[in-house]
């Protein structure tokens, strides 16, 4: 799949933050796919309704990190990662910096293979 690159223009004060809530269970995400806009700030909330820990890592989606709720969330090489314990909620704020369709998945061993995979379209 080819990904088009797009540069981010500076944000102005009228840019609204998009809130996305993803619920994690054994072994699925709800919603499984969603859309974001290049340059628009995002608050991503991971609600873990499951009985084991879950996380989300976006594959090859570049972003600028704005804020994270705790040390379990990070931006490694501009990649967004968010982690939540059972029954807990975590959040991370970021700005997508390129367009394309990107896969996200749970990095806990065996979870991705059990179906914890989704897609985000950034345009």
From TrEMBL:
Q: Which InterPro entries match?
A: BlueCu_1, Cu-binding_ET, Cupredoxin
Blue (type 1) copper domain sequence ranges: 19-122
Q: One Pfam family name from the record? A: Copper-bind
UniProt KW keywords: Copper, Metal-binding
The Gene Ontology terms for molecular function here are: copper ion binding; electron transfer activity
Taxonomically, which superkingdom?
Bacteria
Per its record, how is this protein called by name? Blue (type 1) copper domain-containing protein
Provide the species name.
Parageobacillus caldoxylosilyticus NBRC 107762
